[in-house]
Amino acid sequence: MTDKIMECITNPVKCKLLLEIYSRGQTTAKHLSDTFDDIPQATLYRNLKKLLNDGILKVVEETQVRGTLEKTYALAYDLNRDFETILKENSGTLYMQTFMQYFLGFAKQFQEYCKSPNINIKEDMSGFSLSHLYLSDDELTKLIESISSTIGAAAQNTPREDRKLRTIGVIVSPPKDSR
User: Fold this and answer.
1) What integer pLDDT is reported at residue 32 of this predicted model?
2) Measured distance CA(113)–CA(125) in Å, rounded
3) Which of 31, 50, 79, 116 could make a disulfide contact with 27, Cβ separation 3.0–4.6 Å?
4) How many CA atoms within 13 Å lie on the side-chain side of 43?
5) How many domains does the chain have?
6) Mean pLDDT (whole number) for 118-131
């Protein structure tokens, strides 16, 4: 399943559909068609069928609309797993699903921003980066504690006219296996 989800994220059409379904919880092909007028209807239905067949989507409701059966789609798996369960089971599949929820949440925010007519990347101070660091477990722990402390202090800020709500995410990748 994880490979199929990764395929969705790297496929622009499937990624759009997945983000929209994720953000709405559930939706219909009509809504998707209205939302993404740049996706031809045949392509939309072909991709929905593939997502259903791959087990990424499920049909949660069918409604009769003018002689046609309209399907309501939702994600076929629960991205909102308890992290303690993931740690207890040490499940790569559950861990990947949780990471996908994290990723999709960020991707949805970027998608909404990029659709905005007032986009100004430089002025809005939006961005992302990767840093490749050689760290011992102790050095990584200290770095995470430092980042957490800094973010924790900023989390105490209250809304003000000069403050904008921003989301900052931190990802620590698994180490590359050097064995």
Assistant:
1) 95
2) 12
3) 31
4) 12
5) 1
6) 90
